[in-house]
Write a structure and sequence with these properties.
Blueprint lengths: L1 H29 L7 H18 L2 H6 L3 H21 L2 H8 L2 H11 L2 H6 L2 H17 L2 H5 L3 H22 L11 H24 L7 H44 L1
């Protein structure tokens, strides 16, 4: 109990610091460059709060014995929060804030071979959706509640994999490679299909230690709640595709 209280206190401090550092970076950046969009700051704050609500507080407490609460936390931690945080463009803000020499170091890290590998849409999809299949189709889920370090590791993976997947599909921050819209769209469709199939699998075959009633509600929540968040991702990707076609369309009209 003591260690759990310490971890919870650390998480609260990290939550507050994450918000304060982003706000500080925004203020610092605005002094040198064009004003940073307010909506990105709002996205960051909401994203951080959704992460926090999924690992500390009422939802997190209930998730230990309530699969429905757990699935709610999954949607917040692995899907909605990553989408909002990616839309907040944190790496772009950091690059705007840092001194040139440090910005170059960060830029070289972002272009490194490892980042290039894990940021590929297919690899990110495997880590994201594949990790969820492993979690809910084995005894891993039931083992979470008895091992706090395993609990932390799995939640960290769910968040990081969700963030990497989202960032690999919609390009908001600088990316080490530019995959085509078609490549990302096909990968997204396949990933969403696998996610939808998993939710139906959970509905029919409850994870170890989960009652049928809770599995059915949790599966439906994962299916329909995931569709809503996926809709935001699809809309953003289509909007980026539309904007990328605008110059070509204008150029074509001038030629004709």
């Amino acid at each position: 109990m003591y260690s759990e209280n310490v971890i919870e206190a650390i998480l609260i401090i990290m939550t507050v610091l994450s918000i304060l550092l982003y706000v500080f970076a925004t203020i610092s950046s605005n002094r040198k460059y064009k004003k940073w969009p307010t909506y990105r700051t709002v996205f960051w704050i909401l994203g951080v709060l959704f992460v926090a609500s999924s690992i500390i507080g009422p939802i997190a407490d209930r998730a230990h014995h309530d699969f429905i609460a757990h699935m709610t936390g999954h949607l917040l931690l692995g899907m909605l929060a990553p989408f909002l945080l990616v839309m907040a463009a944190p790496m772009t803000l950091v690059l705007r804030t840092l001194k040139v020499q440090y910005a170059r170091i960060l830029s070289s890290i972002l272009k490194s071979q490892w980042i290039r590998f894990f940021s590929d849409p297919i690899i990110a999809s495997i880590l994201n959706v594949g990790g969820l299949w492993l979690l809910y189709t084995t005894e891993l889920y039931s083992s979470l509640h008895g091992n706090i370090f395993l609990h932390i590791f799995v939640h960290f993976h769910v968040f990081l994999a969700g963030y990497m997947f989202t960032a690999s599909i919609i390009y908001i921050d600088p990316t080490p490679h530019k995959r085509s819209i078609g490549y990302r769209s096909v990968t997204l469709v396949l990933a969403l299909a696998c996610h939808g199939i998993l939710s139906k699998y959970i509905y029919a075959y409850p994870p170890y230690g989960v009652s049928s009633n809770h599995a059915e509600v949790g599966g439906l929540l994962m299916y329909y709640g995931g569709d809503i968040i996926d809709g935001l991702l699809i809309f953003t990707l289509c909007l980026q595709w539309y904007k990328s076609q605008q110059p070509r369309a204008i150029h074509s009209i001038k030629i004709n």
